[in-house]
Amino acid sequence: MDHSGHGMTMDLPPFTLGRGLEFSPNLFFLVGSVVGLALYGWGVARLRGRGDRWPVSRTVFFTVGVLSVALMMCTKLNDYGMVMFSVHMVQHMVISMLSPILLLLGAPVTLALRALPVAARGDKGPRELLLMLLHSRYMKIVTHPAFTIPLFIASLYGFYFTPIFDTLMGSKIGHIAMMVHFLAVGLVFFWPIMGVDPGPHRPGYVMRMLELFAGMPFHAFFGIALMMASEPMIKAYQNPPASLGIDALADQNAAGGIAWAFSEIPSVLVLIALVFQWYRSEQRQAVRKDRAADRDGDKELEAYNAYLASLRGGGRPVPTRE
Q1: Kindly report the CA angle at 161 between 185 and 250, in degrees rounded to 5?
Q2: Which of the chain's termini has less CB crowding within 10 Å, N or C?
Q3: Contact 195/277 with Cβ under 8 angstroms?
């Protein structure tokens, strides 16, 4: 059975995890993953070559993020995802909600700004162009919550509950474009929330949490809608190959359960990251205040004690602060 014009045989045997993890590369994502890791490795090597430090944890996060994309798109999970809605939903959830978080924790923009050479005066090299992009009006728009949250929601309901999804599933290019879109939407949504890399929209920690929780419930509602449906809703998955031995409605219900359950995973990961960042920020601020006090002889404390002394002069005994 030829599925969706992909030119590949989709009479796959019943799904097992072992079969799903077999190597079956998608050339676009394979090359993209190798290039991404190579560029990141070049940046780290360049920093270390001039004696600068780069946290190992960031390298680990970025590497795992790239590998998570490759796992979804360069194994037979991608083949099964063409004919099984449940497997496709795993791909979608990982690529749009887990991979972006891991990639952003790797701080690739910060690494690029530190590793790329500064262009000669009057010239514009890659570093200068990147800075221009970061400070552009375009980036202010696409990283603002008034844009990112509706886009995040529309990537679910606008794709699956309209003919757009079936159209994209009808060709290799369309399928690749859809997956790239999911990854890009996840990166744009989580970028200002994570706050690791510089960007035009940098809200406070409380606002970041609000932005996170504003989008997550819609994933749960989407999953529940699929689980409660009494008939298959997505045309591309209405007639799975007989070789799979699955029922289309049961597979759709499983896909809904995956979407519903997965909405909690990124929330927990991002909350942990935000709390840790918040703690580190408070620690750094306390250190800066201590250093400032050492430099100026603690003028703030002296001014406070002088104020107390003036109150005592008015006949009101007030204890001094040590």
Answers
A1: 105
A2: C
A3: yes
Question: Which tokens hold the place of 116?
Answer: 């790329």
In this prediction the pTM is 0.81
Three-state helix/strand/coil letters over 126-166: HHHHHHHHHCCHHHHHHCCHHHHHHHHHHHHHHHHCCCHHH
Of how many residues is the chain composed?
Answer: 322
Q: How far apart are CA 151 and CA 135, in angstroms?
A: 21
- Distance separating alpha carbons of residues 220 and 231, to the nearest angstrom: 19
Residue 177: CB partners within 8 Å, gap ≥ 6? 168
Phi, psi of 23 (to 5 degrees): -70, 125
Separation CA 193–CA 270 (nearest Å): 8
What one-letter code names the amino acid at 39?
L
In the numeric block, which tokens belong to residue 165?
Answer: 């999804």
CA distance linking residue 77 with residue 83, whole number of Å: 10
Class of residue 191 by CB neighbours under 10 A (exposed 0-12, middle 13-18, buried 19+): buried
pLDDT digits (tens, 9 = 90+) for 63-82: 999 999 999 999 999 999 99
Mean pLDDT of 284-292: 61
